[in-house]
Each structure stands twice: as structure tokens, then as C-alpha cells.
């Protein structure tokens, strides 16, 4: 079959080469961006006098018709067309005749693919950012309801100090906030139009690159044509942003897996977001968070794969970069579906406050409070107070109770320096409320953090409308 580039070739390409070389099997997903870019390019060609009004109109109508054909599924993507750019261009000429052949004036597939893929990545950036904000909304809503729900805060996965559930959820939200900021940074850095760079050195037609950039919603054209056709940092930024996001999602998911176990019993996932076992009828498995935890793996792999493709490539365009797309498509899809299902899974879950409190009463979570009380109220140096508290813990252990259950008399029997009022600070509720430093777990402080994040979510959401 004839190729758009076959002028200098004497024999047809082999079928094997055709299949190996083709990217249309995956880059058809850029069809929307390709048509959008071609429309802007055609308008620019008319503006600088390369197309007359009639030609422009017929190109725009032809591109519109192709978009409809693709949407309705009647457009056939063939390996013989090699990629989406040539598939659309040859269909255009088929549909409108001679003027279709003028569309590729002052453009190369090198700047065309750079444009299409950039538009795709920027669009994905926005939709993922929106999905993170939606997840944060849901989390903040849950956090607000649980600023008094006591649970054990952990370090080394061991009971450490009492916190409230809202505070723990706010901690998740902080990592998601950094994700939103990272996506926004990447967006601003990459929101530049490469079109008009030509193959690598610019064009002799006087392309109005500013016009194309503003037509497509970019903030400006890129600076250097050679860099523009070879740069894939915009895709790598997106892959990195997604990898970080998925790492955060995997950490949240790991806690959901732990929390839904019988040992923790902190959370009950709704039936619609749990699965059963084919052999054990009693089982209800947390497949959603487990799969989310697992999905981070492929997002890291996609990042490393593209870094490896780009490593050591000489300027400017190289066919190697055709390998940039599948990993990005996969990571974008993975991030979008992960955010959506995590949000649903959390919105429909039940948090078991009673079990959390029960667990918070194990492990002597208020031991630090007794040590602090000895320093503040009894004039004992911290090292000694740490030692005395250790003895109290040993006493409680021997008795088989949590220190919060000890009476004042028992405390004094361990060490007479422990003054009246000590057993009040051992109460886990007051222990949690006592941590009221800026950023601390006390309910009022947690609420402050929720308000802060809520303002952020509202501000960013409004700026994206
Ligand atoms: N399918 C190619 C890609 O994805 C388009 C650019 C091809 N340019 C070229 N000179 N062969 O990278």
C-alpha cells in the first residue's frame, strides 16, 4: 500500500516492518488531540496566507467529519497508516481532495506528535488533579465526623500515643495536597506549544506560533525547535507525579487492609467494595485496597521505562520516543480508576469507633503523659520521670491492665513522687486533647487542619473551572 512518505522508495515495505513500526495500535488514543492540533494549524496556515478561506473551510469540515467517524466507531485504524497522524491526514485527502494535501505544510510529524502527546498529558494532568481533589473532599468529610474518635497512633506499627481518626485522615490528605501541588507545578512548566518547530530546525514559512499557542490554550510557544521535538520531560513529569500519587495511595490502602482485618477491626468495607472467596464461604476480602496497593508497581515501572528510553538519546527526534506512549496511557488510566475506586471505597466504609477506642486502651498509650506530668507538676527531671513511668508500666503489665486503669493509690505505691491528679492525665481522651501544639492531634487542632485543607481544595477547584 502506498505511504505518505514513499516518494524515494522503490519497493514496498515488508509486512513485518509495517507491524513493528506502526504506533497506530495505541496512538489512536491521541485522535482527539491530533484533530484539535490540525484545526489550529490550518487556521494558522490561513492566517499567514498559505490556505485560502475555501481551503480552510473544507479542511475544518473534513476534520470534523473524521472526528465524527472516529467517535461512531466507523473509522478503521490500519497498521498500513503507521500512526494516527498519517491515518487522519490520508483520510482527510480522501474526503476533501487536493486541499487536504496542504495541511501538512510548515509542520512535521515530529512537532505534531510532540504537540498531540503534550496536549494529552496536560489534559490527563487536569483530570487526575480533579480526581485527587474529589478524594480529598471525601476524606475531609470523614475526618470532620471523627475529630473525637480515639484510636491508637502508631510508630513502628506499635501503639504509641492516642490520636483521633480525623487527625490520621488529615495526614493522608496532606500527602494528597502535595500531589495536587506537584501536578499543578508540572502543568505550568509544560503548558507550552511545540507546534511550528517543524522537523527539528523551525520552518521557512513564518509560522505564527503565538497564534497556535493561544488557539490551543497554551501559555506560550516553546523556545527552541530542536528541544521541542526531542523533549519528553512533560511525559516524565506526569509519570513521576502519578508514581508519587500511587505510592501515597498504596500507603493509605495498606492501612485499609490492616484496619479491615479481625485483628484491628477499625473499618468495615461495604459489601459492594469487597469480594468473597471461591472456597471459604465466610470470607470477605479487601481486594480493592490490596489491588490499589499492587497497582503502584506498574506506575513506578512506567516511569523507569520511559527514563530508560530517553537516557542517552542524541538530539533531536528519534524513533525511540515512539515508546513514550503506552506507559503513559497505562499510568493515566491506573491513576484515574484508582482515585475513583478509593474514593468510593472510603465513602461507603464504616469506621468502628468502639474498636478503635478499645485498642487505644491497650499498650499504655498515655505513658508519655505521666512522664510529662511528673516533669510539669512534680518537679522531676525528664530522665527520672521516664524511669518512674517505666516502673508504672511494669506494674500495670504485671497486673494485666493498661496504665490508664490504675488508681492514684497504686501509682503512689510505685513511686511516692507521683502527686495527686496523675491518674487524670492517664485518661486517653485527655492525653489526646493535651497534644494541642500547632499541627497536633487535639480535636480543635485537627479541626484547624481540616479547615486549612478545605480552603485549599475549594481554592484549587475554583481555579480549575
Ligand atoms: N509515530 C511517531 C511517534 O509516535 C510519530 C513521529 C514520527 N516521526 C518520524 N519522523 N518518523 O513518535
List the helices and strands and how they pair.
Elements: H1 15-21, H2 24-27, H3 31-47, H4 53-72, H5 84-96, H6 109-145, E1 150-155, E2 158-164, H7 165-190, E3 192-193, H8 209-215, E4 220-221, H9 225-230, H10 233-259, E5 267-268, H11 287-310, H12 325-347, E6 350-351, H13 353-360, H14 367-378, H15 382-399, H16 408-414, H17 422-425, H18 428-434, H19 443-463
Parallel strand pairs: 3-4
Antiparallel strand pairs: 1-2, 5-6
Helix pairs in contact: 3-4, 3-6, 3-8, 4-5, 6-7, 6-12, 6-19, 7-10, 7-19, 10-11, 10-12, 11-12, 14-15
Bound molecules: arginine (ARG).
Arginine binds next to α6.
Q: Care to count the β-strands?
A: 6
CATH homologous superfamily identity of the largest domain: Fumarase/aspartase (Central domain)
* C-alpha geometry: elongated
Q: Assign the CATH architecture of the largest domain.
A: Up-down Bundle
Rounded to the nearest angstrom, the radius of gyration is 30 Å
- From the helix content, strand content and strand pairing, which structural class follows? mainly alpha
Small ligands present: arginine
Enter the CATH topology name of the largest domain: Fumarase C, Chain A, domain 2
Number of domains: 3
CATH class designation of the largest domain: Mainly Alpha
First CA to last CA: what distance? 47 Å
- Give me the number of helical elements: 19
**Biggest sheet, strands in spatial order?**
1-2
Percent range for helical residues?
55-70%
The proportion of strand residues reads under 5%
Report the biggest beta sheet as strand number plus sense, adding barrel if it closes: 2 strands, antiparallel
Please write the string of helix (H) and strand (E) elements: HHHHHHEEHEHEHHEHHEHHHHHHH
Instruction: State the low-pLDDT regions, or none.
Output: none
- Arithmetic mean of pLDDT: 96
Amino acid at each position: 500500500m502506498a505511504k505518505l512518505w514513499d516518494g524515494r522508495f522503490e519497493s514496498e515495505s515488508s509486512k513485518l516492518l509495517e507491524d513493528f513500526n506502526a504506533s497506530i495500535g495505541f496512538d489512536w488514543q491521541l485522535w482527539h488531540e491530533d484533530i484539535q492540533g490540525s484545526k489550529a494549524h490550518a487556521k494558522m496556515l490561513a492566517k499567514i496566507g498559505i490556505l485560502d478561506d475555501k481551503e480552510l473551510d473544507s479542511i475544518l469540515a473534513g476534520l470534523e467529519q473524521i472526528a465524527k467517524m472516529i467517535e461512531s466507531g466507523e473509522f478503521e485504524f490500519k497498521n498500513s497508516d503507521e500512526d494516527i497522524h498519517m491515518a487522519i491526514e490520508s483520510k482527510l485527502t480522501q474526503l476533501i481532495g487536493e486541499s487536504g494535501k496542504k495541511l501538512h505544510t510548515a509542520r512535521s510529524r515530529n512537532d505534531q506528535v510532540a504537540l498531540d502527546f503534550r496536549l494529552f498529558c496536560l489534559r490527563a494532568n487536569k483530570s487526575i488533579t480533579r480526581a485527587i481533589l474529589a478524594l480529598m473532599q471525601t476524606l475531609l468529610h470523614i475526618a470532620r465526623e471523627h475529630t473525637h474518635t480515639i484510636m491508637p497512633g502508631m510508630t513502628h506499627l506499635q501503639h504509641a500515643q492516642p490520636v483521633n481518626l480525623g487527625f490520621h485522615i488529615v495526614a493522608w490528605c496532606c500527602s494528597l495536597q502535595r500531589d495536587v501541588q506537584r501536578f499543578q507545578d508540572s502543568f505550568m512548566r509544560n503548558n507550552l506549544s511545540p507546534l511550528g518547530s517543524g522537523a527539528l530546525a523551525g520552518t521557512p514559512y513564518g509560522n505564527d506560533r503565538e497564534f497556535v499557542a493561544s488557539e490551543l490554550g497554551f501559555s506560550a510557544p516553546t523556545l527552541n525547535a530542536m528541544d521541542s521535538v526531542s523533549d519528553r520531560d512533560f511525559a516524565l513529569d506526569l509519570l513521576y507525579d502519578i508514581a508519587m500519587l500511587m505510592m501515597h495511595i498504596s500507603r493509605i490502602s495498606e492501612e485499609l487492609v490492616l484496619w479491615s482485618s479481625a485483628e484491628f477491626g477499625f473499618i468495615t468495607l461495604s459489601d459492594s467494595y469487597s469480594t468473597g472467596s471461591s472456597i471459604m464461604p465466610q470470607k470477605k476480602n479487601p481486594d480493592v485496597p490490596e489491588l490499589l496497593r499492587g497497582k503502584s508497581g506498574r506506575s513506578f515501572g512506567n516511569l523507569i521505562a520511559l527514563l530508560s528510553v530517553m537516557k542517552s538519546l542524541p538530539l533531536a527526534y528519534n524513533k525511540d520516543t515512539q515508546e513514550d506512549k503506552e506507559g503513559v496511557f497505562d499510568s493515566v488510566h491506573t491513576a484515574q480508576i484508582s482515585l475513583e475506586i478509593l474514593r468510593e471505597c472510603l465513602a461507603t466504609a464504616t469506621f468502628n469507633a468502639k474498636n478503635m477506642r478499645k485498642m487505644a486502651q491497650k499498650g499504655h498509650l498515655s505513658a508519655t503523659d505521666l512522664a510529662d506530668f511528673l516533669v510539669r507538676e512534680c518537679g522531676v527531671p525528664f530522665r527520672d520521670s521516664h524511669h518512674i513511668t517505666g516502673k508504672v508500666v511494669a506494674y500495670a503489665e504485671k497486673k494485666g491492665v493498661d496504665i490508664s486503669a490504675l488508681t492514684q493509690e497504686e501509682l503512689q505505691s510505685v513511686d511516692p513522687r507521683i502527686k495527686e491528679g496523675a491518674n487524670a492525665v492517664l485518661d486517653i481522651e485527655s492525653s489526646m486533647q493535651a497534644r494541642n501544639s500547632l499541627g497536633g492531634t487535639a480535636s480543635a487542632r485537627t479541626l484547624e487542619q481540616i479547615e486549612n485543607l478545605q480552603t485549599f481544595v475549594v481554592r484549587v477547584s475554583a481555579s480549575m473551572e
